[in-house]
Amino acid sequence: MKLTVAGVNKKIVVIFALTVFAAALSAADGRERPATEFRPHSAYALLEKLVRIPPQLTVLEVSSHNKRGVNGDADWPLYKDARSDDVIFDAAGPGCIKSMWGTAFDPNAVLQFYFDGDKEPRLRVNVLEFYQGKNPLFPSPLVSYEKRGLWGDAPFAGNSFVPIPFAKSLKISVKGESWFFHIIYEKYPYPAAIETITGREERSGLLDSFTRLGEEPFDAGEPRAPISRLSSMPAKRSPGTTGCFMKDRERAGSRASSSP
C-alpha cells in the first residue's frame, strides 16, 4: 500500500500525541505518591546495587589450592616472606577484600595485616579470635566460626564478610600454620577514591542484612510503597529458599483488591 505525505503526517501526529499522553500519566502518577511513603530499611540499598556493575571493576580470588594441580590443598601459602611467615594475600590497591574463609586452624596462628607498604603489621589478631568476632574491627554476625564438617578433631570453618578496603596495597601473612584459606577481593581502577580500613566505616546496611536474613528489608509498621512501585517485592522467605516474584506480586495484589 502506498502512503501519501498527508497519511505519514497524520501517523506522526498520532504517535506524538500518544507520547505526550503517556508522559502526562507518568507525571500524574508520580504526584500521587509522596516520597515520604516509601521508607525502606538500610539493607534495601544493598539490593539496588545487585543490578549495578561498576565500570572497570575486577573480582579476583586467592586460595591455598595445590599449585601442582593435584589433590591436597593444605599448607599452600602464596609464598613465605623474609620473616618466614606464610603470606596468604598480597595485592596492590586500590581494592577491597570482600570475604575470607579458612579451616583446620592452628589455634596459635596470628593474622598479620600490612597496609599500604607498612614495614610492620598494622593489625595483628589471633586467627580464632578473628573469626569468632572478638576483634571490634570484625564484628559478628559478619564473621563466624562454626562446626562445618566431621573430619579431624576440630572440624570448624571460619567466614568473614567484613569489607577490608586498602588504598595502596595489602599483605596478609600468618605467623604459624596457614593450612586452608580462600579470599575474594575486588580490584578498582587507579586512582579510585578508596580509604584504607579505619573501623569507622558505615556498615549498618550490611549488618542489617545479616541480622534479618530471609526477611523483607523493612521495619514492622513502616509505610510501604504500592505494589506497582515496589516492582514485586517477594514475601518473607527462609534462608536458602527461593520464590517467584510475579506470584508474590499477584497474591499481594489480590489481597489489596479484596480489602475494604
Please sum up the structure shown.
This protein is of the alpha+beta class and 260 residues long. It has helices spanning 5-32, 44-49, 127-131, 204-211, 227-230, 245-258, and strands at residues 58-63, 79-80, 86-92, 95-103, 110-115, 123-126, 143-147, 156-160, 164-166, 169-175, 180-187.
Sheet with the most strands?
Answer: 6 strands, antiparallel
CATH class of the largest domain: Mainly Beta
**If you consult CATH, what is the topology of the largest domain?**
Jelly Rolls
Helix content: 25-40%
Number of helices: 6
Helix-and-strand structural type: alpha+beta
Unreliable spans: 32-38, 224-260
Named CATH architecture of the largest domain:
Sandwich
Tell me the strand percentage band. 15-25%
SSE order: HHEEEEEEHEEEEEHHH
Radius of gyration: 26 Å
Distance between the termini: 54 Å
The H-level CATH homologous superfamily of the largest domain, spelled out, is: Protein of unknown function DUF2961
Mean pLDDT: 74
Shape: globular
